[in-house]
Write the structure tokens for this entry.
Amino acid sequence: MELGWNIIATAVFLAAAGALTLRWAAQCGAGLPEPFSTPLPRRQGAAPSRETLGKLFLTALLFRCAVALGSLILYNMLSGETVALRDLPELWCRWDAPHYVKLAELGYGGYIEDGKPLFLVFFPLYVWIVRAVRLLVGHTALAGMLVSFFCFAWGSVYLYRLGAEEYGARIARRAVGLLWFFPFAFFFGGIMTESLFFLTTAAGLYHIRRHQWGRAGLWGILAAMTRMQGVILIGAAMAELCNTVKPFSLSEREQKQVFWAIGRKLPMICMPVLGSLIYFALNFYIADNPFTFTEMQRHWSQGFMWFPKVLVYLARNALTWPAITTRWEMWIPELILFPIFALLLWRSWKKHRSMLTLYAFVYFILNYCLSWLLSAGRYLSCALPCFLFAADELEEKPKLTGALMAVMGLLQCWFLYHYLCWGQVM
């Protein structure tokens, strides 16, 4: 039974990957039949004004403050405990957050457990920024939240700019709203890497779309220093560059010239690799091995597992895990999110630029290829193109949009409260 499922799921994956690749090839000038050569829908995008972006930045900051204060009120009302405002940062120190606090205070060499640098699995950029901000505010957890708040606001600006220039202001606003109310979006305000990864990938995708390869490469370095998935911005950049020059529609002589032009841009496009190299260098500096993090991942029961097998254990745990509350906090949401995002990608593959669809597909699958997946909802909050796709699907559907955001907002409150109470939301 399980073997048959693995074969079917892998076949579907290969078919989807093949369709997206052929769609990309058609956008690069290859003469392919329908539906691969279907023209993109005509949309009127425009660059937003600085005033609009400034208002959005401030609104995003206020939204994060409102969520933080709301979490304090929610916890005090429902938990039977009383937490003062000054203790709000400690209230958000749950699961991975205390590790980031310790890393910022002690460094990777000073935060050791069982004689091993187990926390090398945490990428360094967020830790280093929090450590710097801590010098200004004198409180590590508060510094972590402030970093997340400002990265979230800045990332929202970049996501809005990307959406507005590609689809128009209405879809951009809707995409930002869907992201803010996504059930696991409260992590953007926590002491974790979500907001920083949101910022770096949103900025990277925006500059890729504008063909500003150097800026995209610099943001890609920062993304790769935040999470391993940051390097897939390289693929998005290559897809967009080829869509621009359309090498498959040119003569052999013209192709040679184009390939030389592509080669000159490759150093900028591949800059995110430097972020990974910095991470490897940190591993070597701490443990004399650039790949020590792989050993530490095994300690945390993490590694690569092909996604059909992941879905099997998610389904099994969703049905049989002893603690029913844990099923609803972790396993059931992770299982439900997979078909929702898969359906969204299926509906979107002919309607959007290959740079966005290919990036979203690879990012989505990679996050469901972990041997012990505990944070799918948190990871998918950074599947940024998917929120643009969803906003496009909801065009001319204001009632459905409002109802969806209301439901997602209520779910976010539910998951946030359970997170604060040390529920299995991580």
User: Anything to note?
Assistant: Residues 2-420 form one domain. The chain has 19 helices and no strands. The chain has a mean pLDDT of 95. Residues 220 and 233 are 6 Å apart (CA to CA).
